[in-house]
Amino acid sequence: TENQIDFTRVRNWLTECLEKHHQCKPDLESLAPNGASHPEVLKFRLLDLHQKCIVPASMHCRYLALSYVWGGVQGLRLTTINKNILFTPGGLDKVWQRLPRTIRDAIDCTIALHERYIWVDALCLIQNDLQDIEHGLRVMDLIYEGATLTIIAACCHQADDALPGVHPATRYPTQRLAEVRPGVTLAVHPYLEALLKHTTYTRRAWTYQEQHLSRRALFFIDNQIYFRCQNMNYSEDLWLGKRVHELSSPLLTLVANTKYPVNAYKSLLEQYTRRLLSNQSDVLAALQGVMRRFALKMKTDFFQGVPAAAFDSFMLFHSEPRSLLRRRKEFPSYSWAGWIGNIQFVQSLYEHISSSANSWLTEQTWIIWYKKSLLNTAHLVWEPKEIPHSNTVSQNDTGYRMRSGFPLAASLGLIDLTTLPTREEVGPPLRGYPILKFWTLMVYLEIVEIKVFDATAVLIDTSQNECGIAGLDDFEADTFFETGQAYEFIVLSRCALHHKSDLVFPLKWPREDCYHALVLQMEDGVYERRGFGFLHKAGFANSLKPGPVWKEISLA
C-alpha cells in the first residue's frame, strides 16, 4: 500500500461494480417515484464541484455521499444566513478553509475519482431550518442508497481529522508479512468488520443507517481503504488486488431477502442500541430510513419505533447481561426507544416461520392496543385498513389475525373481559408521545432476592412461593424497588413453547405454563414500565390483594 491512494484502482473497482453487479443498482423509482408523492425529493441538494457551490439536484443523478462523525467540531455549516453565498458559483472556494478537514478531503477524493457531485449533510441540509432537516431525514435511506459511492470516514474521531491517503504523505501504511519458510511469504489480511468493531464511527448511532443503507462504500480505516458493495469486497493490501469475500450481509440485501423480518429487525435493534447518541431525542430520527425499509417489507406502519403488525412481540425486551436500562424520557416506556442501554429481545423460534409467528400473535396474545391522541381519542395501534397497499397483505405476512382471548379467564373467575377503552372527560397530563390504552390481567407480587449489580429479582406470591423472575429497569434512579410493597404486574402474553436459550432469565417451570409480564409504576396519573419478566400461572390466583383483576391500563 502506497503513502497515497491509487485512485485509478478505486475507479476500476467502482466501474466493475457499476457495469457487472445488477444487484447493486438501486430501485429509487419504486421508492421515490416523483416529487408529488415524496415532496422531500424536490429539496435535494448536492455540492457541485465544477461550479464550486451547492445546487438543487435530482436524486437520480450520479453523486457520492459522505458518512462521518461530526464530534462537536465548530466547522462551517449551511444555514439560512450563509446559504446565498454557498448557492452562488465559486461559493465553496470562499469558505474552503472554514470547512472541517474530513469534508475537504472527501471533496478532494470525489474530484480524484472524476466525480462531479457529493452529498454532505452539514452542507446540503439547512442546519437551522427544522423543516429542512426533517425533509432530509425522511429520505435518508434514499440518499445513501442512491449514492453511486459512499465515502465512510471510519478512521476519523471527529470532522477535523484527515482522510489518510487522499493527499501525499498523509498515511504511513504497513503490510503485515511473515516468511513462513524460505521463499514463501504470508500476508495477513485484517477483515474489515474486525477493524470497524472498535472505532468511534461504529459507536455512533447516526452512522448505523448511513453505513448499512449504502450500496457501495469506500472505507477509510487502518491507513488503507476498503471497497465494499452488495457483491464483493476489495482492499489495497491484497496482492494483485484480488477480491475478498466476507461473511457479511449488507442491510439492503438483508431486508430484501429475509423471510423473517420480525427477527431481522429485532437483531438490528440489539446492535443499534449499543451505539451512542449525543442528543437522546435523535434515537428514532437516526433510524428513520431503516424503519421505512422494514415498513415496506412488512407491509405495516411503525409506531414509536415498533412495527404495529407485531406490537406484542416488541414489548418483550430487557437489558443485556451486565447492562442496565436507564429511562429516555422523550419517548414512551413501552417502546425500546424509551430506554438507554443495550437491549435484548425475547426471541421465539416461531419467529423464523411467519405462519407460526402469526399463530403466536393470534393464539397467545389477547391485548387490543389503543393509542390515545392529544385530542383524548383512542385509535387502534394496528389498523391494516389504514396502511397503504393494505390490499396486498397476505396470510404469509406477519400480523394479527383473529384473537383467542385471555386463556385463564375462567379459572380465575374473570367474567366481563372488556377490551374497549373508556372515554375520559379529563385525561392525564399530555406527553410528547401517545399513551397506550388497553385492558389486561393485573396481579400483585413481592420482589425479593434482588441482585443489585444485575438488576434482577425473584417474584413471590401471597403464599411466599416463588412464581417468577424479573429484570428491573431504571434500577438506580430512585428508591422504588426498596419499598417492600406489593408491586403491580400486568400480564402481556403467553410464552411460546420454543424459545431460544435465555441466560438472563433461566426459568424453573415449563414454558407453556409461563407468561410475559411488566412491572409498573404509577406516575402523574399513568403507568410507566419499570421492569420485564416471566410469571408462572400459579402466581395469578395467588396474587396479593387486590388482585387478580382485569384492569384498564394507561401506559406512557
From TrEMBL:
Residues 63-210 form the Heterokaryon incompatibility domain. InterPro entries: HET (IPR010730). This is HET-domain-containing protein.
